[in-house]
Amino acid sequence: MKIIIAGAGDVGFHLAKLLSYESQDTYIIDLDGEKLNYINNHLDVITRKGDATSVSLLKEVGMEDADLLLAVTESQNTNFTISVIGKALGVNKTIARIHNPEFLKNDTIKFEDYGVDFMISPEELAADEIKMLLDQSSFNDTVAFEKGVFNIMGTTLGYKSPILDLTVKEAKDKFSHVDFITIAIKREGATETIIPRGDVVYKLNDQVYFSVPNYSINKLNPIIGKEHIDIKNVMILGGSSIGRKTARNLCKANFNVKLIERKKEKALQIAEDLRNTLVIFGDGRDLELLEEENIRSMDAFVAVTGNSETNIMSCLVAKSKGVQRTIALVENMDYINISQTIGIDTLINKKLIAASNIFRHIRKGGLLALANLHNVDAEVMEFEVQPNAKVTHKIIKELRFPREAVIGGVIRRGKPLMSFGDFQLQSGDKAIVFCLSEAITTVEDLFN
Predict the structure, then answer these.
(1) Are 323 and 298 in contact (CB under 8 A)?
(2) Mean pLDDT in the chain?
């Protein structure tokens, strides 16, 4: 598969990194030679310095025989232009990164007629993720498949968890009335992710990911030793695009929302646009202002300014004031893995979310969806089992399934089923698979 990426920023780099694991024929174009040099030194892809709107350059990299064009520069207009030119030159499919939500909700213009097959908004995706995280407040990471029929739930184990010091098998035996599969453990201070077998022991401060059918989510709280937090009052720091979209989503769901914005004109405009949101003009770094606005009465604090450090520090302040749930937006992808060590519930990166969403268009083997977990360098994938796929030939424990991957559950005709060793997959099943990067190609082959 030949893929051309326009834009070597964070989204483009992460996409190129994921593609490099699979030996895809990948080209990445950017005007910034420094970014391209970094990519050359770290990834096995082909880089070209230049303007991705240049017809001659796109012809030079072979756009006419490319399968997919990913236009993910920082400029929405540039991405549209690149997509239109790429389509005219013969690329099979185009995906453009955009910022204006009107394009996503448009019913009158068919953008595919002009060369843009699919559009993605990192801001919209981040706002949706924040809403989902607040809905599942006992967990610091959550991914829903098939509208929540199966879910991946992540949390850090505290002193109150009854599974501490138990093995995975002992915990399953002790809580045999609850359907769940432990798919991953990220140990405090460790860089590698553990795909747990039966003899792995749960330890204090482990970041643990469970695969859970919809009917077992509430039963999982006693296992992790946490009560569900009923979040109603939310304070948002920053009237950025994500801040506004998050406030809009939460107000629609009947949350009580306060939004703090330090620019007066912007605050007035947001107040005009979001009538159900209480908009406060002021600097959210001002502790006096936070106290005046009753931060102690907030159930959740969401920091989405354009400054990662401000977001992190303000969330730590909110935690110190007794706010139970904190979410910080960070621009630096390197920050993502430190949330469990610094005391913030969840750190999110809109570009990482966008790259994962785009990546599902590249997968093989009937891939329906793909998601990243915040604290691990791995993928959670949903496959539709193809007719006569290798995974249908034997029960799971007899398959040569890689140790770096695990099947977290199966959805068959809309119903969730647990995928233990004696389970056999059938054509048409939808399987939830957790997979480390090095095993992606092997897993895809099994589902073909």
Answers:
(1) yes
(2) 89
Q: How many secondary structure helices (H) and strands (E) does the chain include?
A: 15, 22
Burial call 64-88: b when 16+ CB within 10 Å, e when fewer: eebebbbbbbeebebbbbbbbbbbe
The second-level CATH assignment, the architecture, of 126-130+229-353 is 3-Layer(aba) Sandwich (3.40)
> Which own/partner pairs from 335-340 qualify as long-range (CB within 8 Å, at least 24 positions apart)?
335/308, 336/374, 336/375, 337/374, 337/375, 339/140, 339/374, 339/375, 340/140, 340/156, 340/186, 340/188, 340/205, 340/207, 340/375
Closest by Cα among 142, 135, 145, 218 to 179: 218
Q: Which option is the CATH number for 2-120: 3.40.50.720, 3.40.50.1220, 3.40.50.2300, 3.80.10.10?
A: 3.40.50.720
CA dist., res. 143 & res. 353, Å (int)? 11
- Give residue limits of the domains in the chain: 2-120, 126-130+229-353, 138-224, 355-446
pTM above 0.85, yes or no: no
Q: What is the pLDDT of residue 360?
A: 67
Q: Report the chain's C-alpha Rg in angstroms.
A: 23
3-state DSSP percent of the chain in helix, strand and coil, to 5:
35, 25, 40
Tell the CATH superfamily of the 355-446 domain. Answer: Regulator of K+ conductance, C-terminal domain (3.30.70.1450)
* 8 Å CB contact between 82 and 27: no
Q: In a 3-state reduction of DSSP, which class is residue 25?
A: strand
For the chain, 448 residues long, the average pLDDT of each consecutive 10-residue run is 92 83 82 94 92 95 94 94 96 92 78 90 90 84 88 91 95 95 89 89 93 93 87 95 94 95 95 95 92 95 94 94 93 67 82 78 66 75 90 93 94 94 94 89 86
pLDDT per residue as tens digits for the range 301-310: 999 999 999 9
